[in-house]
Design brief:
single chain; alpha+beta; five-stranded antiparallel beta sheet; four-stranded antiparallel beta sheet; 18 strands; 34% helix
């Protein structure tokens, strides 16, 4: 049994065992736990009726980025009240720029339009854009949080407390699935023109194109049209979603899903359940607008809650044009505003620092983020651990590259083989390298002193130095070959090479070095023979006279042939194979066909004359009237007005005999003059 197990282990190998251990680790690790319990609400958006809810639907949990629904609700409210416009430039503070992800990427000091902040907060769920919206409307995050809480109480979110505009985990920042459903329905009915932004897959946010974080639900569930996702480590994966099918509109809110896929699966199941249970027909009951004069916590005594009061007042601007300013009048407000361009920036530079906005502190604990991580089926850190185990298992024991030479290898060689070391040192010395002797090097190495080996300076005449170091008898030649050492000299204007006859030099000049390019250039290319003009017969077939001589029609060639020199013939000799049989008949040239008359009308040579007139206008008018009345018979004819004998003749040409006769018969029946004219 032991032998069989050992054979199996050797066959399975280390890699297989490592993979098995990795699989066992994955199976043994407990599933990832989410931070807060799951809560859900299914609401009929038409009536506000709760169709389904979990037991903890009113438990105070972390809303995460669902908080931005309230931030955007107040932003839409401010736009409607005229507190700000979509094109109002917003200056980004250091506090807004320092927010953790997810972010738009705003920088401290830059200016961006208010509309782009709305898009970034609604689609990208950007925390820096949410803080910028809060500071633009209320000046600081705490003041904006107070307005958020006041609005929440006014619309009936009784168990919600806001501490910031983005939803990052903060002490006391809590809400419920039921309250977030109320907020989503309120936002849909109060600002339907702005609600469409939640259905966009992507949009331009000024400095970047932002994608919708809810595009997974929008692209997978039929009828989906919004609205907002949320995620933090403490909250899990949250979503308030809305969809409509066949006139039935539902709103689903989930808290505490374990992943984005789990969130999508749960929301889809709840949506399907809601569409099964919701009535097909229901009267729409719009929620009331927030009542800031008397909040939900008022009991009829004391001052009214809130400070924002919307009143229907008379128009503030007149539809009549303004009067022309008179001397001494105060300048208009728009003129002062135009002249004060840049004053706000100057005041911003010289004002006292604001501790609430001029700080790099994001206001949340380090490491808190609302950026949803990429999906992974294995627990965190497990993939990296398994990868390290597998790499360690399959790594080779020995490297295919050679090992580096040890530093003290020369010392070992000098101590073990002194004779061989001395020989190597001698060879190196002859090549110009400066090395220490064996005994000196060993002594220095044993003492631990590192002596840099510096080569000697390069001699000026390196060739001469190498020649001096060569032995007198030269290198040993291979057996069976003779080595001749000789000098090349110039004596008496000739180049002398031992074993060869003297080579004379021009004017006693020294022998130049032979260059392959020069030698090639010295070779004269053969002169090209002048091309003879080509002479071709006029006809493609040659004519031969009785004597067997070719008859040419080119007079220049005949002239050249008449003065032909037998030794330099004009034409190259050609061998012609012929037959002496009487049956051979020389083909005669085809007889040319003479064409005396060319017709392109295909026999349409007849014409009809419709009368003679004093002016070409009268002739054209008759031609037009006849063409309209006899379009069937004269459709192939060519209408023309011709001047003959001082009169203008209206005629139709290019007709056949039958067409001309038929046309005249029909025209004569209508009392129209018509004469058939033959080609002759």
């Amino acid at each position: 049994m032991t032998t069989r197990f050992g054979r199996w282990f050797r066959g399975f190998g280390v890699i297989g065992m490592t993979a098995l251990v990795a699989v066992m680790v994955i199976l043994c690790v407990a599933p990832r736990a989410h931070a807060q319990p799951f809560a859900a609400v299914v609401m009929d958006a038409r009536t506000g009726e709760i169709l389904y809810q979990t037991d903890n639907s009113t438990s105070r949990l972390h809303p995460a980025s669902l908080t931005k629904m309230m931030t955007l609700y107040i932003a839409f409210e401010a736009l409607q009240n005229g507190e700000i416009t979509e094109d109002t430039p917003v200056r980004i503070s250091r506090h807004a720029a320092s927010q953790p992800p997810s972010r738009l990427g705003l920088r401290a000091g830059q200016t961006i339009a208010f509309r782009y902040l709305i898009r970034a907060a609604a689609l990208r769920s950007a925390n820096d854009a949410a803080v910028a919206i809060a500071e633009a409307l209320e000046g600081s995050v705490p003041a904006f949080a107070e307005r958020m809480n006041r609005t929440a109480r006014a619309i009936g979110m009784s168990r919600t407390t806001f501490r910031n505009p983005h939803g990052l985990t903060t002490d006391g920042h809590l809400s419920t699935a039921r309250d977030m459903s109320i907020l989503g329905r309120q936002l849909y009915f109060d600002y339907p023109s702005y609600y469409g932004i939640f259905s966009r897959r992507s949009d331009n946010a000024g400095i970047a194109t932002v994608n919708n974080t809810n595009r997974l639900f929008l692209g997978s569930y039929r009828g989906a049209d919004g609205i907002k996702t949320g995620f933090t480590n403490a909250a899990g994966y949250n979503l308030t979603a809305m969809a409509e099918r066949d006139g039935v509109r539902l709103l689903v809110t989930v808290f505490g899903a374990r992943s984005s896929q789990d969130r999508l699966r749960r929301v889809s199941q709840l949506m399907d359940r809601g569409f099964r249970d919701a009535p097909r027909r229901a009267a729409v009951r719009r929620p009331a607008r927030p009542d800031y004069v008397r909040g939900a916590d008022d009991r009829g005594s004391g001052p009214a809650a809130g400070r924002v009061i919307r009143l229907q007042t008379a128009p503030t601007t007149s539809r009549f044009p303004r009067a022309r300013p008179q001397p001494g009048d105060a300048p208009a407000a728009d003129l002062i505003a135009a002249l004060s361009t840049g004053i706000d920036e100057l005041i911003e530079e010289i004002r006292e620092p604001d501790p609430a906005s001029d700080t790099d502190d994001p206001g949340v604990a380090p490491g808190v983020t609302s950026e949803e991580p990429e999906e992974s089926d294995a627990p965190e850190g497990l993939a990296e651990a398994v990868e390290q185990v597998l790499v360690a298992a399959v790594a080779p024991e020995r490297s295919p590259l050679p090992r580096g030479r040890p530093v003290d290898e020369a010392v070992t060689l000098a101590a073990a083989e002194p004779a061989e070391a001395e020989e190597e040192i001698a060879i190196a010395a002859r090549s110009g390298s400066g090395l220490l002797g064996t005994e000196d090097y060993v002594a220095l190495a044993e003492s631990g002193v590192q002596v840099p080996v510096t080569p000697p300076a390069r001699p000026e005449d390196l060739v001469a130095a190498l020649v001096e170091d060569l032995p007198a008898d030269g290198p040993e030649a291979p057996a069976g070959e003779a080595v001749a050492m000789a000098d090349v000299s110039t004596d008496g204007g000739a180049l002398t090479i031992p074993g060869l006859p003297p080579i004379p030099l021009a004017d006693g000049a020294e022998a130049p070095e032979a260059q392959p390019e020069t030698q090639l250039a010295a070779l004269e290319a053969p002169a090209e023979a002048p091309l003879m003009p080509s002479l071709e017969p006029v006809a493609s077939e040659l004519s031969v006279d009785d004597d067997g001589r070719i008859l040419w029609r080119d007079e220049e060639l005949l002239q050249a042939l008449s003065h032909e020199d037998p030794e330099e013939p004009v034409l190259a000799p050609t061998i012609v194979l012929t037959s002496s049989s009487d049956a051979d008949v020389v083909a005669s040239a085809p007889t040319p066909e003479i064409v005396t008359h060319v017709s392109t009308s295909g026999g349409r040579l007849w014409r009809v004359e419709l009368g003679r007139f004093n002016t070409p206008f009268d002739a054209e008018r008759v031609l037009l009237r006849v063409a309209l009345s006899e379009a069937g018979t004269l459709r192939n004819g060519v209408r023309r007005v011709t001047a003959r004998g001082g009169r203008h003749v209206a005629e139709v040409n290019s007709l056949t005999h039958e067409e001309a006769q038929l046309a005249c018969l029909r025209l004569a029946a209508r009392d129209q003059d018509c004469t058939v004219v033959d080609p002759s």
